[in-house]
């Protein structure tokens, strides 16, 4: 592992390659493509949260001037019974308000909208299941009549799709040994990912069955396989071209429009464009699970945790598949606990199917645990960071979810927090402070990269990871470091599913780690070829040639007097030394390296209105190695703001019929810039041994800790705890009034 | 497939003629000034056919006349422009602050207080501030102009007293006497870019002994229309607008409120907060009144 001080490119903060296009409005996002003779597709959505669909009559819509096709789920392969299929267009039941029922393609968006009004649907309205607690009751109305818990055919139908349970040691014994015990319940509401760019795509098809999709997505290869699955096609029938992406945060890992647009295109023979409006995004995409988490933690007087239990119920929405699994696996991840028990429940309700949101599952369960740890610190009269240090997981700790931790940076982050001036300076009387720890596993998965050298020595990287957080810049920096050439001579391109090797989605904080690893290895491939060509030129063995500072040089001790050959020198003569220089790598990356953080929020509270103001926020996080520190800080700040929004004001407000009342950014309150203080960042670097430069993913951990840090800050100032989020003015004022 | 017509008359007479003609033909008309409410509503949910009549380039709707007795403010002046007028800011700081709360900087370049009133939302920020300043709405009609006190202008949620062939020219506001101060505060969960959960405007006049001789209090977002709360004003008149008096005025506001529970707040929350805002706005108005006592 090279020392930080020796890096030339890594750790610098150059302008991103895609920056000019984006800030000048030239970059093409999902809704920017228009093709000749293109039609516009629109979706009819259910006005009921739960209803049997008795009949859909499309004939009046189809008869309209300017309408080319109107379809329902009957126009899709019926043998495909994926819940994805049933989410894209409802089959026998509408399962949430906003559930897609039918779609039309028309000459203009306006005609398409008018056509939707002519579609006749006959419903048998059913009572909706809206609350987790109700859904888990034995006698609850069923979202899906044939769903059985854990697919156990011997059990009666239930809204509980799956349960899980894992444990270690003996919790009864552990609690018996405890001097203090904290036991609390916490609710976290649904939150939307809130990406600025709505879902959008254009699909074309040809009579031979080939399909091309342009769309905004975190994973073009996943769009390809999902669309193929729904339409019963092979993946080789489908080409997916990703646009630039205006935020995803996990919400653009699934498909909603693409298979519908393809089907409309197949039926009309024309390109079909579909773009959601903001209301559709809120009603029918995302969100993150609403949860109920029950936590019990016991500790000795010295702070050592003796036992902990977690009972975690996650709303899945209308189809199974909440992130309760990672919620369970992350809840105790920061701590070395001998005795624990974790139980998780994946629960169906008549709400949109949840989607991944930045560290999916962790913010909710860790909010509960980090609040409980804070209560423990209060009871023990210990500094909250000291209490966490006392129990912190470190290299060699067996993680609650199984593996033994390799080097991780939790202790380093906690120690950095303790000496940080923002922590050393204690807040004034009017300010409350709360601390919490964040964690995310991170993933590796499959990536490919090709590195092409132009005849002037310029470097072009082709890879398959949509660039959401500045990853092109990180790829260029790692290539610059590896090849030893200036950053400015390198460009990075995100290919489509036919121009680049297979690449899993941008998610799981994997891109800089895994695709970065592929880029480094592809650069090493180029270097090996350059060394071979230099050896050929100098009539040496390739073992006698080294690569130093972007040049081939004879190794020390090789007795030859030649000038070094730079990458540009070798590129200039490549036609004579074996042809084009092209480095390649494809891999399934292992050892992503868990990422830990420590955050604290400083708040004031207007006790007459219940308004919580965030006065300061400090984020400390282990990046392994910050390739482009500005973009690491950008992830830390962006995640912090999303976490603070979830803590303070973001929530879905449903009426008694299951209709979301705040399906707009006006009333679904993400923070505006003036709500937020500057988010102070400190990057800790405990290198990940599984990456040549030590990279850990940094994109998801930042959203985890702000929820509990803010709850704990409110607790600090008020002197009592508000267990449920959001800490919105009406909720906080009601709690204050009740306490008085 | 345009779903609307658009005209931009160049005089009041022409505007009235256009409105009359369209009304006679049974055509829906909609007055357009900044359009920050109207265009969003038209695009998102209410897109039935209509004729937009743009009044933002009329001389009269852009006029500001500061005279001895009265001040006239044109209905279509963008609040960004209003807030550049130092004299108006000195005369009606509360009203201009209310105008400045609406939307973003970009929206401020278009949004007008006339539009804010004619949109007739219970939560319109400038309406309570106009009410406490005793603004008269000057309405252009075929028979000349008529005036309506602002507190009587809004008749229900999204409804007002304008007939289809009339439009709002502007506001005639009495020049505040010495010792007068106004203030408007609203509550939103964010710092900006939001809609009032509750709002309170206060204007009061103090004599040389610091006794409140005149007060007007108005509350918004807590009833179908913004309300003039005379009981709150009565609690202040004859006092020094001290903490006790302000608390009584606050209680009067809470009592006068007829709020609903919706996505922006509960009945209990709005009732309480509108009183808190009265106390705080009252204190600001008092400070301003004290510093204005020697103006004449």
Describe this structure in words.
The complex is a heterodimer of chains A (740) and B (296). Chain A has 740 residues and is an alpha+beta fold. Chain A folds into 3 domains: 2-26 and 444-587, Aldehyde oxidase/xanthine dehydrogenase, molybdopterin binding domain (Aldehyde Oxidoreductase, domain 4); 34-126 and 197-246 and 252-284, Aldehyde Oxidoreductase, domain 3 (Alpha-Beta Complex); 291-442 and 593-739, Aldehyde oxidase/xanthine dehydrogenase, molybdopterin binding domain (Aldehyde Oxidoreductase, domain 4, 2-Layer Sandwich). In chain A, a hairpin with a 4-residue loop joins strand 24 (595-606) and strand 25 (611-622). The model of chain A has no long low-confidence stretch (mean pLDDT 97). With 296 residues, chain B is of the alpha+beta class. Chain B has 3 domains: 4-54, Uridine Diphospho-n-acetylenolpyruvylglucosamine Reductase, domain 2 (2-Layer Sandwich), CATH 3.30.43; 60-174, 2-Layer Sandwich (Uridine Diphospho-n-acetylenolpyruvylglucosamine Reductase, domain 3); 180-291, Enolase-like, domain 1 (2-Layer Sandwich). Helices cover 36% and strands 25% of the residues of chain B. Chains A and B meet through helix 21 of A and helix 12 of B.
**Overall pLDDT of chain B, averaged?**
96
Provide mean pLDDT of chain A, rounded: 97
Low-confidence stretches of chain A: none
Largest sheet of chain B: 5 strands, antiparallel
Beta-strand percentage range of chain A: 15-25%
Largest sheet of chain A: 7 strands, mixed
CATH architecture of the largest domain in chain A: 2-Layer Sandwich
Assembly type of the shown chains?
A: heterodimer
Helical/strand content category of chain A? alpha+beta
Q: Please indicate the percent range of residues of chain B in DSSP E strands (runs of 2 or more).
A: 25-35%
Radius of gyration of chain B: 19 Å
Could you say which overall geometry of chain B the principal axes of the C-alpha atoms support?
Answer: globular
Number of structural domains of chain B: 3
Number of strands of chain A: 26
Order of helices and strands of chain B: EHEHEEEHHHHHHEEHEEEEEEEHHH
Count of extended strands of chain B: 14
Globular, elongated, flat, extended or rod-shaped: what is the shape of chain A?
globular
